[in-house]
Here is the input.
Amino acid sequence: MPNLVNVQFDTTSTSKSNALGMRPMQARVFEQRNEPYILVKAPPASGKSRALMFVALDKLINQGIKKVIVAVPEMSIGSSFKSTDLTSDGFYADWHMPDKYNLCNEGNISKANIFREFLSSQNEKVLLCTHATFRLTLKDIDISLLNDTVIAIDEFHHVSESADNELGNVLSEIMANSNAHIIAMTGSYFRGDQLNILNSSDEARFKHVTYSYYEQIQSYQYLKSLSIGYHFYRDGYLSCLGEVLDVTKKTIIHIPNVNSRESTGDKYNERSAILDIIGRGHQGEISANENGIYLVPSKLPDGSERVLKVADLVDDGPSRVKVQTYLKNITSADDLDIIIALGMAKEGFDWEYCEHALTIGFRSSLTEVVQIIGRATRDCKGKTHAQFTNLIAEPDATSEEAAYAVNNMLKAISVSLLMEQVLAPKVNFKIRGEVIGNEDGDYEISIDDWPNPPSESAKKAIENSDTIIAKLTNDTKKLHSVLTGEYEPEVWRDYHIPKLLRESYPDLEEEEIERLSEVFLTAMTVSAGGAKIVNGDKIPEDAKPHIEDPTEPYNGPSSGAEADPNKKFLLMGGKFIAVDDLNINLIHSINPFQQAYEVISREIDTQLLSVIQAQVRAMQSDMSIEEAKALAPRIKEFQAEHGKNPEVGSADDIENRLAIALQKLFQWAQAKRNQEASQG
Here is the structure.
C-alpha cells in the first residue's frame, strides 16, 4: 500500500546559535528559566539535554537553587548529560557531571546510598540517575530534603497520574510537600496507554514550552521529506519482509515481541531468517567480525554484490555489549547498514544515518512508534528522505481475529494522523485582537466573535493545542472515518473535543468550551491531508479554489495562476483557500481524513475493504448518547431527504451509523420516560 503520509520539508537552515551558544529551541526554554515548573516538548535531536543544562545552571547560580537531580528512563541515555563545555560558546558556566554522582555509569553498586549522601552533602551540585533509582530512593526519605533542588525528568511521558505509576505519585508528592523546581522534558507529551501524564491541577502549574517537529525540520540542512506507510502480510511477516526491505537504505528493523501474536515465538530463528532475507539469495557465508557485527554477502537490486554490515540487538547474550560499544562509536555511514532489534534502538538511540525505520507488527504504544520514527528523522549529510514502514497482519474475514486486526490497523493509522499534525506549520489564534501563545506561528486565524476576553484556562488550552490534538488522534474510536469515508464534524465539535476539554480544563465555562471546540477542529483540519500554508505564488497554476457553497457568488481567484502572491493560502492537494476566508462552516466542509481514506480504499481489494468496514461498524455500535445527540440534525436531514428513518445494516455506511444513533436516541428517550413515570 502506498504511503499514507508524504511530507515535504521547506527547509530554511536557520538554526543559528545566539550569543550564549543556544539554538532556537534552547533559547525559547531559557526565556522561561525563572518558572518553577517547566514542561519542554520538543522532538528528538532538538537539544533538550543542553536546554536543561542552561536552565539548571542559571537556577544554581542566580535563583538560590542548591542542587540538580537529573532522572532518565535508562542508563544508556545518561550520556546525554555528561560534562559539557558551554563557556566556549558564550554561556557563563560549564556543565560538570561528577563521575561519583553519575549513577548511570556501570559499577555503582549502592546507588541509593550515594543518592542519600548527595542530598546531605553541602558541596555537591549535580546527580544523574535512572527513573527507577529516583523513585525507589525517594520512597524512604523525607521529601523536604528536596527543598531548593531542581529535578529534571527526561522522557517525561513515562510518568502518569495512575495510582500504579510510582514516578507520577512521587512527583505529585514533591510538588505538594517541597519547594523543589521541576523541569520535565519529552518528545511526545502523551502516553500510548491513553493515561493522563499529570492530573489537571498539577499540569496547570507547569509552563509549557513547545518546539514543534515542523520548526525542528525547518532548520535541517539535508533531510527534505518524510513518508509513513503500511503494508499487509499473510502467512507470517517473514513471507513478505523482502518486499518492503530495501537493503540499500540504512535501516532499523524492529521485530515483534516474542509474546505477541505477530511473533513466531523464537526471536533467534527470526533473526537468522532476516539475515537470509538481507542476503537476497546470495550463496556467500554469513560471518561475524571482532565487534560482533554480522557480515552478510548480498545481491543488491541493481545486480551488483556487496557485503552488508548488520548489527544484532536481538541476542541479549555476551556479544551484545561489543555490538553496543561499536554502535556508540560509529563515525561514518559506511560503518553500518542495518540494525535488527527487538526492545532496543528506540528511545534515546542515535544512529543519524538511519533512513528507514521498519517496524513489524502492531505496537500498542503510540509514544513508542513516534520514538521509532524519530530514529529516522535525524538530519545527516547524504540523507534526503526518511521512511517509516509498519508491516501489519492483513485482516481476514474467516478469522476470529478480524476485529483484532482491524483495531490494530486503526491504531497504526492514528500514528500517521498524529505525525501529520505535528509536522504541520504552526497556527496562532488571534482572539479579539490578542494573539494567544507564542507569536512565532507560521500563520494566524482571527476569531473576532469571542463573547468575552478569553479566560486564563482558555488561553492555556490554546497554547497547549498540540497536546489536545495529540490526544484526539490517539483514540481509535474516533477514527472510523478513515476506513469508511464518512466524516461527522459535528460529532467532533459537539462531543469528542468538548469531552476532552472538560476533562483537561475543568474551570472552563461552557461557552468557552463551545468556542474552543471550533478552534481545535479548525487546527486539526487545516493540518491534515498534507495541507500546508503557502504564499499565492507557490500555488500550482492549475490548482482550483475550494468553494464552500457553489450556489453563492465567489469573487476569489479561479485558479492558482490568479492567486495574490502576497496573501497566505491553505493548499490541500489540488485546491486552495485564502487563510483570511477560513470560517467554521468552511472547516466543516473539509474532511481531514479524506486523503487517508482514498489511499486505503484505492489500494486494498473490495473483499478486504468490506471486512474492514464490517468490523468498524461493529465498533461503532457501541455509541454514547452524547455522540447520538450530536448526530440528531443529520438524522432529521436524512428523514427529510429520503422520507424514512435510516436503517441498521444499510450498505451505505453513513445511513447505518445514523440508524445506530437513532436507536440510541430511542433507547435514551424511553429510559427517560420510564424514569419520569417511576418518579411521578
